Structure formats: structure tokens, C-alpha cells
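User: Continuing from earlier, I have the next pair ready.

Assistant: Great, send them over.

User: Here they are, in order.

Assistant: Folding the first of the pair now:
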Amino acid sequence: MRRSDFVLKPYAQSSNLRAAGQLLNTLIPYGLLWLLLAKLPSQEPLLALPVLALMVLFSARCFSLMHDCGHYALFESRGLNRAAGFLFGIVNAIPQYPWSRGHAFHHKHNGDWEKYKGPSALVSTEEYQTYSSFGKKFYAFLRHPLMLFPGGFFYLIIKPRLALLLGCYGFFAHGLGQFRKGGFATIPELFKTYKSKHWYTTAEFWDLLFNNIGVISLWLLMGAWLGHGRFWISYSVVMTFSAAIFICIFFVQHNFEGSYAHRTEGWSYDRGAIEGSSYLKMPAIFNWFSADIGYHNIHHLSEFIPNYNLRACHERNAHLLRNVKVLRMGDIPSCFRYILWNRETNSLEVIP
């Protein structure tokens, strides 16, 4: 099958009205849940559990909608997508623009495992065999499903702040080096010559900076309103579990038995989209909270299809998707076994 065999274009039409409706039906309930949490008696923490569970799901939905904004698919205009994406990035404490540019690399190379090895940075079977006994156990330990939780906390709470600090330190060290060489450079000139692994363009830096300003300001305001201890306990739970959910969903949509995991030579974009992505069947309620990202083959065939058109597009092309990998929620644990890439057989494997 080829991408041209699918009917995609009619579904790649964004609607500002539907997008605005999704923004409102996500952010307003999420905000109301925080208000409800504040009203609950602090001496009865069990009462907060169902509220926190709902907040986790709404936070995960915020991330999925931010993801749509990164593809310029949620709203009709790039400007509205950038504004909404930035807002969702504040809510979920992650800089949307740098994240989306990195995610675009994934879309461009999905299934080419020489260039993109997934969110868990999987290694080849050959490289794995060079590890010591401890190294092999540590590799498996870091990719255990339970590591989604500390990993999720780090991913949202710590990593964006650390990236700004380390990147700025490198930037000032670069400027000082230029000065010591006898040259005075303006800030725009320094940005042009400074290469950072924490941001790749000046626009990414500004998004990272303003996201951090917004997030930290929100933390201080929420802490002052709710009490810093109560806020941080609740917030940490919500961010940790929501990050674990969307990292898990992303992982299983590409790491499964039979996934297309090719070398660069002979790699096919179309096969990467169709065979290197799964169709994750979930109950309707979870489809809503994940913004239909389970229709992942369609999403990879055309990233410009907004989430609210994915199911219709999937149904229109169902006859071409009969042989794609279908996963159900009960299949998710088994996907975490496929954490090695065999470059000889172009496949994912379990640790022997």
C-alpha cells in the first residue's frame, strides 16, 4: 500500500469552531476540578482521589490537543495553533514549540530506526551484546513500564527547567569565550553562532524561556492560593500520571511485535506510517481523553488531519487497514518487551 491509495485530503480540513469547542471543553473542566480540589477538606485525602484521577485524564487530553497544535492541525491558522499550543504547554509545563519540532523529526523518519529510536532510545542487538551484565540489567531496568512514573515526573517537571538553565549556561560561556578572543558580539550574533542541544533555533529558545516564565509563575500563584504543600502533592501526582499515560501510548503505538523497524537504506515512509504505527482500540471515554490518537496509522499518513476527523478518516479507509497492527489495552504490557532493534532482520525484539 502507498499513501496515495488512501483518501486523506477531505479530512485534513481544520475548523476553528470545533477547535475552540475542544479547547473550552478541556480547559474549563480542568480548571473547575482544581477549584473543587481546593474545596475538599485537607484532612480527608481519600476524597481527592477521584478528582485527581479526572485531572490526570484532562491533563493527558491537554497534551494530545497540544500535539495537534504542533502539527498546525487543530485550528485553521498557524497563529491560532501557536497560541493554543503555547497555552496547553503552560498547563502541562512543557515548551510546545521545541517539543513539536522534535516530534516532527519523528514523523519524518518513523520506521527508520537508524535515525529515530523512539522515546526510550532503544539500542541495536549488536550494541546490547557489548554491554556488561550490569549494563544489560540497567538497560532493561530503565525501560521497565514502572519507570514511566519517575520518567514522567522528570519529563514535565524537571527537564524543561533544566534545559533552560543548561542552555543559558552554555550560551553565556559561549559569549564569554567570544569576548576573550577579542571580539564583542551582539546577542543576535551570539545566537547565530551558538549551537545548543537544548534548543536548535532562536525561536525555540524564546518559547522555552517564556514557557518557563509562565509555568513557574503559575506554580507560585497556585501555591499561594492552595498552599504550596497541598498544591505540589496534587500537581506532582497529576503531572506524573498524565505524562506516564501519554508516553505509554506513544511507546506502544510504535513498539510492538512486527513493527516496521528498518534501516535507512531501503526505508519507506509509507510503510513506516502504515506498518510502523498501531491502531490502538480503546473504550470511547479513553478515545475522547486521548483525542483519538489511537488512530495512529492515519495520523502518520497525514499529520494535518485534526483529531476530530481521525476516526471518520479511519472508517473511510478501513478496507486498506485490515492488516495493520491492532492493539487493545490488554496488549499494552507486552509491547514493553520489544526494546531491542535487530538491524539485520529489520525488526524489534525482546531481550533474550
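And the other member of the pair:
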Amino acid sequence: MSTHDVDAISPRADSAAQATRVFWPEGWWRLLDFRIGIIPLPIYVLLIGLIAALVAVGEIKSDGPTMIVVLVVGGFTCAEIGKRIPVLRNIGAGAIFATFIPSALAYYHLIPRQIETSIVEFTKSTNFLYLFIASIIVGSIFAMDRDVLIRGFLKIFVPLAVGSIVAALVGTAVGTLLGLGAHHTFFYVVVPIMAGGVGEGAIPLSIGYAALTGVPQGEVFAQVLPPVMLGSLTAILLSGALNFVGKKYPSLTGEGRLQPHTDDGTDIHAVHEEGGEEQGVGHVGVSTIAAAGLTAITLYLLGVLFNHLIGLPAPVAMLFLAVLAKLTRAVSPELQQGAMVVYEFVRTNMTYPLLFAIGVALTPWDKLVAAFHLTNIITIVSTVVTIMAAGFVVGRLMKMYPIETAIVNACHSGQGGTGDVAILTAANRMQLMPFAQIATRIGGAVTVTVVLMLLGYFK
């Protein structure tokens, strides 16, 4: 081989070596940095193959590691689809797709049976919805200023009460004008929307209706469940739209803060205590984060005990205990910082997998579809629009951020705790979870109690 040939080959060899070096490791690292949700692309592809292989050999079980993989892949895949659709991505399509696509897939048997069964078993046995809610509530409460916290909790009842009353009147009037009848519209369409979801709303409502009317509880439940589902979907869509409005008109929103200012004019988002800034505690260690997570779980279990002793819903009891701990300075600034890290971790990494599990295990697609006839749709939408519009107007009059108060009111027409997660995810305002729980749990319990008294009186 001549010297000329060697000289010609050398640049090509150098080019090939350079190309190899460019891909490895820098090119590979770029692939790892491209993510589907939180999942690096190569890991995502590998997990898809692993899930398919495990299905083929019958090894999909409801254990923790397997379900983490299945729910993370499913949740973030659906969310990414929603986030990439023009227009819809601006109104919370990520949360909607992560909840309702798996519901439809399960109903039409497009999810392998063993995956569906394992998700249902895992979701119901672990009850990790409440682990999520506990972490969000404790973290968001511990991040609030003490004085603003108590004023916010007292003030939020006003737009909630006004919205509920006005929505009941408007929804009933619309349904009556459309030929549904005032009695049917109020008791079987409007009230279920505001009853607090399925477990704490539609079920006790159907039991009460059955006892008072003599109609079998199953038949009543089949009537009141569709408005709950469609009302929640409407609230999710409208809350996502409000998030878009807030970006166009920043003066209307606190981006998750309920009130613009404290009495002295300082921003309520600055979390402070006497003697220094709570947020200025420096680096939060791993043990502190773990301690904060355990604190959230402890407060939830105390709520479970209170539920057993006095009948107060566990999330509400936990919420009040967290507020009490904040107001009495029972939790150190460092532990509060740890709770905020737990909050951010859970919000970022667990929301879409949780919604995917909810879609498969707790969202009956057929019931949602059953509500899709024109008179029902118009009545339900008018009810949800009214309760949110009332929250918007009253919140503004009370010098609260109108978009935030409207979103909290939307949670009163959601699908219980699962609806709160989807609504606040669509609105990108998970910090409002404590107030959402008030709207859902307390607002729902008051609604069910008052309506059963009315039905008993007017039957």
C-alpha cells in the first residue's frame, strides 16, 4: 500500500473515531437527558420492552416495584400525549388524558387483563391516593405564613357557600327549562355534582335517597354517579382554561396563592416566622426529608383515628391537625423545609402515575359516557360554570385572587380526592390542596346532610 493510500485512509479512520467519541458518552448522555415525563428515553424504551415481556410470561404482579414501573410509564405516556396537542395542552390535557384514557382503555379491554387486575389490587390495597394527599396537604400548609393561613381558611368558606347556593339555583332552573323537572334536576343532577365525589358523596347520597324514597340503592346510585363524573370532567377542563387565562392576565392570579397581600402589604408567599425566615434554613438533609414524610403519614393516621372516634373524614382531620401544628409552632423550620421537599417530590413524580391508577381502578368510563346527552350536559356545565364564576366574583370582592378562588370552588364539583388531584394538576396549582379538601370534604358533607334533610321534609 502506498504512502498516498495510507494518508487517504487516516482521515477516514480519525473521522470514524471522532464520531464514536461524539456519540459515546456525550451523545448517549443527550439521549438520557431527553425524557418522557421523568423517564429518560433509553430507560423508557427498555421499560416498555420489560412490561411486554413480563405480560408475555405472566409475571405482572401487584407488588410495589412492578406497579411503580407500570404506573409511571402509563401515567407519563398519557400526560405527554395530552401536553403535545395544540390548544388542549393549554387547558390541562395532561391531567385529562392521564385520567380518562386509561379509564377508556380498561373499559374496552385494551389493557392486558393481568395489568388491569394488578393496578386495581395495588390501588385499593395500598391506598396511596391518601399518601399523595397527605404529602401535598402537609407540605403546602407548612409553607404558608401562619397569619395568612388562618385568614385564608376563614375566608374561603364565603365564596364556597355563595357559589354552592347560586349554582344550585341556576343548575335547577336550567334543567327545569330543558324539561328534566325541578325535583329530578336538583336531587339527581345538581346535588350529586357538589356532594364530594363518589365514596363520600354519591354513595351516602344514594343510601339516603334509597332510605327516604324506597327506591333500591343500586338504581339511585346509577342515576347520581354520571353527573359526578361529568361534573368533575367539566371542572378539570375549566380549571385548565383558567390556568391559561392567568398567563394572559397575571393580575387575576397568585399562581397558587389565595390572597395577594397581608395586612402590612407584604407578599404572602414569603414564609416567615418571628426571629427569621423559615425558608432560610439552608440545605435540607436526607434524614430531614424522611422525617417530614413520616410526619405527614403520622398526621394522616391520626386523622384515621379521629375518623373512627368522631366520624370526621380522615383527610379533613389531618388538615386541621397540620394547621394546628403550624399555628402552634409545633414543627421546626427545618422540618417544614423537609415537608416542602416531600411536597415537590410527590407533586412532580407521583401525580400522573396516580391519575393513571385512578383512571383504571376508580373511574368507570361507562358512567361518564352515560351522562353525555344534551340536556344533562347543559345542566351540568351550567352548574359548574356558575359555582366557579361565583367563586371568581366573590373572591375578587374579598380581595382574594379570583382565579384561585374559582379553582377551589371547582373542587366542590369534582370527583372527591381524585377529582381534586386532577383539577389542581390541570390548573397547575397543587398548592391549593388544603383549600380544595375543605371544598370537597366539608362542602360535600354539608351538601349531603342538608339535601337529605330537605328530601325528608319534602318527600
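Worth noting for the second one:
The beta strands are 35-36, 39-40, 272-273, 276-277. Residues 127-349+362-458 form one domain.
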